[in-house]
């Protein structure tokens, strides 16, 4: 018979935990998705610098580029063409970052991590009493202080015991006595 008191205590501690995510819901809005997606609101090309912008603004000088390469322990450009290519790439990346920084994010809640934070995903990853029912059935409350203890089982074996027989040399392609043979770069066995 499972101990429901231990489960109730666990549920109360989970309910009081301020670290658990709060779930908010909003009323569904009646929006016409087809009209929203009919024309694009922005383009990827807007994040990249135009042809005229590259020539007009150069915030990175060749000296700064060499200094940055030296600080990051990267090789210096071998010729002026490679240096110009590096400068163009760096300018493009700086322009991209500046465009990303211009995006208005007021009212947007930042992500806690890069994962699916939809209500279905939160429900799937939430640990509740239904998931813990088997573990709670293996516990019992004992003593005056009502300590929760695990019910001793007949044998607590490792799950991989059925898979691995304990002989590490079984998977070796070459063996010599109780050792496995490793081919060296010269082609001789050692």
Automatic annotation (TrEMBL):
Recorded GO CC terms: glutamyl-tRNA(Gln) amidotransferase complex; mitochondrion
Domain (Glutamyl-tRNA amidotransferase complex subunit Gta3): residue spans on this chain: 56-111
Residue span of region Disordered: 143-190
Gene Ontology process terms (BP): glutaminyl-tRNAGln biosynthesis via transamidation; mitochondrial translation; regulation of translational fidelity
SUPFAM superfamilies: Glu-tRNAGln amidotransferase C subunit
Domain of life of the source: Eukaryota
Protein's name in the database: Glutamyl-tRNA amidotransferase complex subunit Gta3 domain-containing protein
Organism: Penicillium daleae
